Please model this.
Amino acid sequence: LVPVGVSKFLNNNGGMMNETDNNEIPFSGGTPLPIPPLLKNTSSIPNKAEFQLSAQIAKKEFIEGKETDTYGYNGNYLGPVIRVRKGDEVSIKVKNNLKEETTVHWHGLEVDGENDGGPHSRIMPGETWNPKFTINQPASTLWFHPHLIHKTGEQVYKGLAGLFYVDDDVSDNLNLPNEYGVNDIPLVIQDKKLDANGRFEYKLGMHDVMMGLQGGTILVNGAVNPYLEVPKGKMRFRLLNGSNARIYELLFSNNQSFYQIASDGGLLEQPVGMTKLVISPGERAEIIVDFSEFKDGDTVELTNQGTEFMKFMVTDKKQKDFITPNQLAKIVKIDPSKALKTREFIFQGMGINVNINGKQMDMDRIDEYMDINTTEIWEISNESTGMMGGMAHPFHAHGIQFQILDRDGSQPPANESGWKDTLLVYPGEKVRAIATFKYPGIFMYHCHILEHEDAGMMGQYKVE
Ligand code: C2O
Ligand code: CU
Ligand code: CU
Model:
């Protein structure tokens, strides 16, 4: 198998300014992987879904016997999985039980600006926000997290994030593993700077301001050193890079190949075989891994750039056999000749000066205006430079899903040929993507390195 995926020089994780926390915990793989609960739909009416979320203050032990302060949705860290179907009318009551303001943004959801949960949709402590929307996009793995102006990095780091699954008939009929928590497993990957007492705090040093906050301990679903028992068969993993800033290059310790079946906004047309997956903050990828060649008791680790952070233990448990279909979803390509215009977005600057098109975020300024139901090409370039030669920035826009037209004039890799809402742009690179603006309102576009977003690498577009 040919490894696919953009894999250019990645400066973000290292460089001469690299300062690792000296409390990195050696990998043991001794903690069972927590599976976030599915959030109960409290509506009994078909095609209607109602959910309750509470953003709350909590405590959690990342290391046994050592407690640290956290935030969580309906729990002490991260949140439950919200699962809806295409066509559902959804109502979510979000209660802010924190002692500070927050917002809840549905990352990847095609929704109007009022219900998108960006920085304008502030929820005061003690108050409830009740967004309503109808799901009108294909089966996909989306997610939700706070988006308070200048505070997104801190609130996400403390634990506020959760997954949002969309199902539809197409994905139901594909015979893919889809039993939640059994053969269809969420993997929310994040990194933390844990001190010797198992605590973490959101404090930015010089390196964090430049590169975004990165820690030496990688968590999956909030667990340090996780393991998962897997049957000798095919498993589906839904990966979310929920980290503030770290870009992962994921490989199995045995170089095991796997298939990517979905990107940010849904299933790909064909499964893409690979041995390495690059995933930047905000991105999702669904993969199928086949453990059938292993023997009982075998283990294989998931690694990031050679560092193990999760273990799979193969058991003799029987499971039904899945054949990965050659044809997944049908994706109608948006015709570039339908684009009304091409808009340019240029990432520039470093540290506290990071910006887009020379401007930093201003809540009172709309940067781009567009007409509803029009199609545009967005040309995103990364002109960030610096003493280390610049860094890669993941570009994300709210309320829409893109199709990537090209990277520096060449076809995107096969695993980027489907729907994308977060696009990693390497230093010096230019990515062209196309989207149709179907919903009215004010939306954000920004770098998904949360410290860059909070510093002002964000702008606003208005559809009317
Ligand atoms: Cu994942 Cu503007 O957000
Ligand atoms: Cu978003
Ligand atoms: Cu950035």
